[in-house]
């Protein structure tokens, strides 16, 4: 790829541009985990309570998830380049605010701003890869993005601990400034895509503000309910029930409104009008729901059942992490070579279901052959479905719908991740409650039993190591048995995703690359023609002239 920044839409994108996109995704992913090991020091320095402790992490994730569809639609109206540069600037500003913060309230505000920028970076980079490359070539770049994401998530806790202990926790945020600044400059110089002239106020008026408000309100309400349930408030408390029910109700209203009210809807309902597309989105949810359980609950198994510490559990997770990263990259190149995605989606869901079904057999005593082999099987299944379903969805919508379709895919993934962790925790806790009398009979004091069978069971697993030999053995058996029921639930979700692959329409990916056109004129064309192709014999220029005449 050439580094020549000349405006040549037909040439391959610059290597430096691709580097800037990967740096943006790396920083967005890094900031999810970099504060995990630094949080105790941050909380001590800020003298904050448990609520502030939780919000420092949650604010970033909530803002990112809620803002993705809005960033995608904004880029459809004003163009990808201005939107991406603005997202970089927002992330840069949020990082600076966090680094300079003197109180926990300012830090949380900074994390919200950071999260807003991160949501834009993640969704716009994924959309841009769809814009810059032919459908067949995209797979390789999405695979590399998956690798970047995995490396960033793995390095985050290590870097956070290093900064907090050797320098200052503020470097968890300062590190973003030069790197994101470099990404912003490279984007400004090397990103050459169609950028429409959209008068500012015309563009602002064209944004679906009602839909944007509903997306933010529904997402924040639902995720807050899941975040608070069983931790801050009881699951049957009025606060949790109100938040969850309100979130679901707002989302139902959102889809009803999107179908009839906005001129340029945030998420066009036509994306969901085919069984194939609905199946792809449902598979995205199923895959994300199951995948995150491996990353989140396997370390719990290693610590609660095998007695590993935090560092050891990270090492024990390597077969899963390395396999899914490797298969994600391999999938991209296989798709690039063959143009086929359906066998990879089906095979991926088959292996991930098999792998998580095998986790049911994980014993209370170390069995390293099973632990390693089961993780490898699950990882083989997880890797392909990071990008293959996204490519299938992009391949089944019109070019002007690639942005909202990609944003919807990413949003569903984040929502599934959040719901999965909560549901898994609820299943685990309910199963542990069934072992309460067994734990008491083993001579474990009631305070510890309350911790191990309550809402803080996962954060209290270190209590097991402090028990005498026999009670410790009983507690580990209880966790192993309870987690097997949880793995069964995840395997069932995998089976649902596997069954849905039968409804995906088979369509080979093309080698041809068509430039994506953004702006209000293209939005108008999408409103008129929906998911259909351009009328026979009509060129894009003729069509835009026709729309302009209609607007006059």
From TrEMBL:
Protein name: MFS general substrate transporter
Molecular function as annotated in GO: transmembrane transporter activity
Alphabetic keyword roster: Membrane, Transmembrane, Transmembrane helix
Stretches the record annotates as Disordered: 532-552
Matches recorded under Gene3D superfamilies: MFS general substrate transporter like domains, Multidrug resistance protein D
Bilayer topology: Multi-pass membrane protein
Signal peptide span: none
GO cellular component, one term: plasma membrane
Location(s) in or outside the cell: Membrane
Residues of the Major facilitator superfamily (MFS) profile domain: 17-509
UniProt feature, compositional bias: Basic and acidic residues: 541-552
Keyword Mitochondrion set for record: no
Record family assignment: Belongs to the major facilitator superfamily. TCR/Tet family.
């Amino acid at each position: 790829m050439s580094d020549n920044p000349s405006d040549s839409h037909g040439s391959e994108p610059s290597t430096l541009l691709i580097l800037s996109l990967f740096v943006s995704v790396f920083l967005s992913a890094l900031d999810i985990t970099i504060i995990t090991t630094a949080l105790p020091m941050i909380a001590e320095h800020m003298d904050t309570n448990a609520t502030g402790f939780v919000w420092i992490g949650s604010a970033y994730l909530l803002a990112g998830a809620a803002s993705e569809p809005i960033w995608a639609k904004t880029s459809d109206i004003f163009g990808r380049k201005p939107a991406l540069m603005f997202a970089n600037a927002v992330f840069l500003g949020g990082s600076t605010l966090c680094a300079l913060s003197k109180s926990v309230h300012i830090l949380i505000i900074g994390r919200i701003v950071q999260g807003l920028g991160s949501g834009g970076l993640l969704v716009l980079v994924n959309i841009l890869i769809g814009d810059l490359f032919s459908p067949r070539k995209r797979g390789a770049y999405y695979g590399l993005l998956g690798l970047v994401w995995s490396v960033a998530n793995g390095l985050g806790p290590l870097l956070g601990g290093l900064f907090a202990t050797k320098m200052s926790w503020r470097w968890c945020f300062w590190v973003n400034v030069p790197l994101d600044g470099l990404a912003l400059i490279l984007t400004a110089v090397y990103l050459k895509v169609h950028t429409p002239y959209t008068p500012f106020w015309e563009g602002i008026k064209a944004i679906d503000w009602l839909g944007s408000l509903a997306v933010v309100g529904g997402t924040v309400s639902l995720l807050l309910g899941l975040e608070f349930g069983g931790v801050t408030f009881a699951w049957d408390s009025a606060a949790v029930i109100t938040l969850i029910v309100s979130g679901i109700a707002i989302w139902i209203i959102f889809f009803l409104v999107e179908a009839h009210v906005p001129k340029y809807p945030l998420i066009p309902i036509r994306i969901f009008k085919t069984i194939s597309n609905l199946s792809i989105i449902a598979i995205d949810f199923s895959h994300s729901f199951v995948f995150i359980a491996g990353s989140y609950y396997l370390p719990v198994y290693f610590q609660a059942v095998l007695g590993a510490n935090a560092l050891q559990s990270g090492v024990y997770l390597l077969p899963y992490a390395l396999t899914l990263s490797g298969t994600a990259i391999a999938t991209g190149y296989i798709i690039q070579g063959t143009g086929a995605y359906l066998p990879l989606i089906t095979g991926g869901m088959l292996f991930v279901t098999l792998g998580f079904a095998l986790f049911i057999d994980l014993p209370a005593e170390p069995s390293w052959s099973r632990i390693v082999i089961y993780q490898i099987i699950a990882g083989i299944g997880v890797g392909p479905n990071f990008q293959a379903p996204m490519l299938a969805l992009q391949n089944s919508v019109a070019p002007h719908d690639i942005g909202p379709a990609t944003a919807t895919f990413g949003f569903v993934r984040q929502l599934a991740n959040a719901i999965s962790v909560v549901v898994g925790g609820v299943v685990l806790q309910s199963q542990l409650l069934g072992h309460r009398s067994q734990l008491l009979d083993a001579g474990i004091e009631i305070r510890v039993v309350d911790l191990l069978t309550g809402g803080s069971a996962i954060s209290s697993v270190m209590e097991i190591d402090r028990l005498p030999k026999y009670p410790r053995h009983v507690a580990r058996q209880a966790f192993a048995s309870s987690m097997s029921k949880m793995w069964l639930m995840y395997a069932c979700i995998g089976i649902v995703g596997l069954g849905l692959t039968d409804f995906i329409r088979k369509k080979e990916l093309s080698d041809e690359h068509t430039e994506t056109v953004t702006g209000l004129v293209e939005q108008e064309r999408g409103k008129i023609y929906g998911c259909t192709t351009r009328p026979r014999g009509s060129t894009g220029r003729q069509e835009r002239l026709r729309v302009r005449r209609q607007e006059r």
